[in-house]
Amino acid sequence: MIAIIVGLIALMVMAYLGWSILWIAPVAAAIVALLSGMDIFDAFTSDFMTGFASFARDFFPVFLFGAVFGKLMEVTGSARTVASFLSKIVGKERAILGVLLGAAILTYGGVSLFVVVFVMYPLALNLFRQADISRKVIPGTIVLGAFTFTMTALPGTAQVQNYIPTEFFNTTMMAAPIMGIVTGLIMAVGGYFYLSYRANKLTKAGEGFTEPGGEEAKEEEGQDPNVILSFLPLLAVVISINVLNLEMLSALLIGIVLTFVLNFKSFKKFTGAMNDGAKGAVTAVVNTGAAVGFGAVVKNAPAFPAIKEALLNIKGGLTISDALSTQVLAMITGSASGGMNITLNALGSEYYQQALDMGLNPEILHRVTALASGASILPHNGALLTVFAITGMTHKDSYKDIFFVGLLIPFIATVVGILMSYIGLV
Can you tell me where the transmembrane regions are (predicted)? Predict the structure, then answer.
């Protein structure tokens, strides 16, 4: 058990210091293996690389299409047009709210979290540039909009964290609507006010918007595309997923083709955009895969079953046991859905039967499990590393904000959800 704790702390500290996950993940995995009595080379070549390769196999196509789509939206001016429209709607001074709403709409609509990051980043750049807000706040804003209330709380959200519990608790994705709305508001409103405070603090300290790489903003030639035409590719992706029930790759391909057709005058920029998108996809999937590889070594460590068993038998009530088990395992593995899967595969059926015996509405377990899975974003979290890889920010720049909006406030919301369950308010 000490081996896992030491390895986890080493990984988080090194990640926070800004060292590349590509080498600190294998080092941290080696620490776990060494202190656990595992064969280090076998742990790396088998466990680590299996986890790494499996993630790349499953997600690289989505990363690639999502990155290319986002880059095309950027170079054609569509992202800038959408950002300008949102700026007019919410006010230029409310750039954080504009990014938050954009990310939330896409996430609730079922667009993959990774794709949301790729698509929202160019929009966020334009909004934050207009409002002169430090880019350090962009990662926290995207995390709040995509990785919190729309991922786990709001009833009906088309994300995997809201789907997995339905398989174990015989519920629907609309489970516990009152609890979901209340906890979602806690995360959304609390996170927004924190990020607004953080942006104002940075502005007063003289930290405004700076261009990525320290370069000056380049004025694009020609007029920006029509706002309706700029929104169409985004709407096409959301509608393809939620109305036409198409696969994510098919939906993204439709978005890419539509961007091509609607912005054909910019065809000279397409090749460069696709090349840049592909490079960004590789960076993001490799960084995230390294974190997943570390989680694979941890899950195969001799002490992991004991940790899992201890968590799954926590005293203090069914909902508390469910919440803590899910949250801690999601923290250890660096994956919200990963922690949820481990918990529910081990005790999901037992939790469900106990709930029925106690007269507890299974919808409570559904929503609490989802909420707890999201309150887990530590420095080595795979999705977080993707955010940093895309935005160019580091843990030193932005993890403090993400800790507040992606871990602390969601944890508070989870506690509120558990308290609501005690009075039957679901």
Answer: 6-36, 95-125, 137-154, 174-195, 227-244, 250-267, 402-425
Residue 84 pLDDT > 80: no
Q: Taking the CA atoms of 68, 71, 75 and 80 in sequence, report the sign of the dihedral they define.
A: positive
CA 400 distance to own-chain centroid: 16
Cβ within 8 Å of residue 219, ≥6 positions away: none
Cβ proximity of 293 and 45 under 8 Å: no
Contact (CB, 8 A) for 310 and 289? no
**Tokens 């001799």 — which residue?**
302
Task: Name the strand (E) or helix (H) holding 408.
Answer: none
pLDDT digits (tens, 9 = 90+) for 137-159: 999 999 999 999 999 999 988 78
Tokens, residue 174? 């609309």
Using the predicted structure, report yes or no on whether residue 93 has a pLDDT greater than 90: no
Helix intervals (H) in 109-226: 113-131, 138-147, 160-169, 177-204
pLDDT in tens, 41-54: 999 999 999 988 98
Tokens of 283: 């960076």
Give one word for 10, left, alpha or beta, with left for phi > 0 and alpha for psi -120 to 50: alpha
Per-residue pLDDT, 145: 94
Residue with tokens 């890419």: 256
Nearest to 60 by CA among 332, 394, 392, 386: 386
Find how far residue 130's CA is from the centre of its chain: 25
Return the DSSP state at 19. Answer: -
Enter the pTM of the model: 0.81
> Looking at residue 218, what is its pLDDT?
52
C-beta pairs of 314-320 under 8 Å, 24+ apart in sequence? 318/351, 318/354, 318/355, 318/358, 318/360, 318/365, 319/360, 319/364, 319/365, 319/368, 319/418, 319/421, 320/418
